[in-house]
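Good morning,

Both structures are done.
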Amino acid sequence: MREQIDETLRRELQRQGVWVTKMQDLYNWGRQNSIWPLQFGLACCAIEMIATAASRYDIARFGGEVFRPSPRQADLMIVAGTVTKKMAPQIVRLYNQMADPKYVIAMGACAISGGPFKQGYNVLKGIDRYIPGDVYIPSCPQRPEGWLHALMELQRKIEEQKLTVTNKTSHFDRTQGQQ
């Protein structure tokens, strides 16, 4: 009965030009349509990532056209290409500098499993051993269409996230008692 009253009230408000929605839906809508990727690339897949931002593929349709030069301004890390053991600590550092909520797309066979270079002594067997991945694009060579598909998959994941409040203490709060 209450649900029928809520639905009737919602329809009446919509007829008057007032939209009613949940705060979680509004928050997720804003986050999924304004994804800011971190601007860096590791190998050949980065060229395809750059091509996606050009006018032919136009990722502005999905709200992801603002490539940020600083990890503190980005919320999406795209690991595009071969990750070597020498580069892994820098990628982890960039990931840790990103603000929450943060997302990772692993682009290409090299980022996911080492690709054709996995037998090398200096190539990681996948970036997911160091940072958590949200979406994986398994192909080589990578195409811009695959990147757009991964972006849409990430938007679907963001749409389903719950808006929760946690009582995490900051690093500053934890270190105050130790001094």
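Second structure follows.
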Amino acid sequence: MIPTLRRLAPLVLAGVALAACSRGPAPTETTPPFYQRLDFGGHAVDPVSSLSMINQYRTNNGAAPLVWDPALARIAQGQVDRMAAQGRVYSTEEAGLDRDLAGAGITYGSFLANFSAGYRTFAEAFSGWRESPKHNATMVDPRASRVGLATAYAPNSKYKIFWTLVVVEPR
């Protein structure tokens, strides 16, 4: 009996090692928030690290830092929740942000938004936005001073994760 166990021990250890590898990346305490995967349930974008990354980028591009606005974050959450429920990314024209802003009592001189999907981490979303001229213009708009950002998880959609970033120039 013991010789059989000795022969099986390496196989059992190899199986345990392979099982540990097959689970995919899991968030750890040492993973910065902007690299944590959001494409599975129960996770949300971290506003502090996200805003810090955007503001550093804005500063590097000659724009003043943005201030996190909880009301804009709620509007962004409503927008992204609707996109996730429909399983598609909105265009700015069809989003109805002007209606949402007015409904929340937010007056503005101008507003812009980035709508996207499929980016698993904030770092991926940020990089994608930076590489898109239209999305990049939203992030570095010198008129903007307030921001809201939100994500929504949709496990049955092809994208899994949806993103909305709203920036506003107050009136």
